[in-house]
Specification:
By secondary structure, the chain is of the alpha/beta class. Helix content is 36%, strand content 15%. It binds iron/sulfur cluster.
Amino acid sequence: MMRSYLLLDPPSASDFCRRGSLREKDDAQNAPFPNIDLILLSGAVREAGFRPVYIDAQLDRLTWSQLTDRAGLEGVSGVVSLVSSGRIEDELAALKKFCHTLGDVPCYVVGTVILLRDKMRLQRLVKDNPWLSGIILNTAEHNLTELLRDGVDRIVEPFNIATQRSTQLMVPDVKVRYGDAHKMPQPDHAIFKDRRYCFPQSKRGPVTCVQFSFGCPFTCEFCIDNQLYQKMLYRDVDDVVEELVEVDRLGFREVYFKDLTFALHKATAIEFLTKLAAKRLKLKWLCTTRIDVATREMLTLMKKAGCYGIEFGVEHSKESTRRRIDKRIKNDRIHEVFKDCRRLRINTTAFIMLAFEDDTEEDVRDTIRFARALRPNYVSFNVVNVLPGTAYEDRARREGFLRESSSDYGFAASNIKHRFLTPEQVENLRREALRSFYFTPSMILAKLLEVRSFFELRKLIRLGLGTI
Ligand code: SF4
């Protein structure tokens, strides 16, 4: 019988932010979907000769002891687990105990972007956790398959960060490489099929996630995601089309492309979208991209290939603020793109950043008004937060507006000393923003009139009640 390997989204004391699945209570974006890193790694595990099994302990609301008691875990040959940014040490301690009860099976964890940036902390973790088999820092290029296939289900000493390929620690290299037909084993989407998963924008289920490209070459000052993959890499177009055909065959009805900037490389995107459209699949998809990528031609192709929704980083109403954070996009262009999407019947989500360090109350309200004027279907209002390892952190330190004591990876509260706003004002403005967009009679009516399926109605009720 084929030996199994556990892919684990582990228990957590509270809702949290983990790589690939940002969740925060009291946020309209609060929706659970399967983690893309585990989805990608399921292919590596299967290629190594193991049967991947998957548990989302958060979705099942399992504690560590309930997880340990879970039937079917006997005989698991090893574990690949996520860890969360703020609680790595605690989660590693719990994982160590868990792997011990399974018979001291090997354990790999998917490293967070914070570890990628903080090499000292990474080295300390490796040194303090010799039981750990490896930290996967890059889920596009890694040697997990070889390690598992070669039977390296044992601790290899010593960990060596410098020599990447010969040890268990997988560190990405740094290059910009466009258009490569990067080969990866096909993920095992079937094990991630769960009707409880949805995206905030979902209209139908079941849903899953796919990733076509890795990395983002832009340098938005506040962004940390662009550091996850330090080169821009595209998967083989035919492989991804084939993956989507399989996803469709498995009965999934929606896909969320987890690319940071979908369709950035125009020629690759056109080839992919044309081939995908020709397959005439039932499934629809959602992606995130930049305003400056979303030309009318590209949007039309995307629509033909099944795109039903796009998330855009709009950030702020003032062009001068966007210039300062290195997001140089004109207001007129933003309006045009949202209008084009409406014309093509593509749903839109606007990501908005509330309360930069020098914003006044009026600036924040102006940004809220700007977001409403775009008439997006959804808005994600995030309080501006300085993330460690970003250019924004350097400037915040230099200019003295970083509140050192707090850091919230979930963007619900701010770690900025605002020049013109108190923390209470910022929180009130965030609530005001959410209320003014989501809880007006016209928006509630519009959302109800848009409902086309029982799945969507149930999703809206669960999002509204916060029971997801
Ligand atoms: S375009 Fe998006 S992913 Fe890229 S740097 Fe800017 S915010 Fe980050």
